[in-house]
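Workshop exercise sheet. Pairs work together: one partner reads the sequence aloud, the other fills in the structure field after running the prediction. Swap roles for the next sheet.
Pair: D.N. / O.F.
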Amino acid sequence: MSAFGLTYAMYVAIVGGTLILVDPPPEATTATSAQNAWLFSVGRNDPDKKPVGENGFLSVEYRPAQEIGWRFKPAYALGVSVDGAAYVTAAVRKDYRLGPVQITPYIGPALYQSKLGRFESKELLQFRTGFDVFVPLTNKLSFGLGFYHMSNANITNKSAGLDITRVSLQYRY
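Structure field:
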């Protein structure tokens, strides 16, 4: 990966370092961040990196409000591409606030297959690392832009190698 001129290791270090070293300030736990949320997104893979997913990825995520320790919150996602790739993931995240803007970095393992119905054990375990930036539209609805990278850090030669840029709607309840 070389999105934004970063290697995958540098990208993971930035996102992971933020999650581990930077705690959201107490005022970041406002009423909106204390709500559960569903996230619906559509994104596109960088076609120069990998042809799978270039026609689009659709994903749905559940982001519970409860903390699971060290101010981490969970995130669960399911995504499918128009050309047959699919993933399911569980991640840890933190929600940061800059005025009304919410910034959410996350990282976690993912189960991935580039073609549905064709099980490939060497590509099954991947890691999904990303961030989203949300702007509120109403008290319950936010618009977001995000990016995530999914790969297996070249553990095997079957890395997903996805660089997904996406737009999202987040519904809090």
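Discussion prompt: The first strand starts at residue 37 and ends at 45. What would you look at next?
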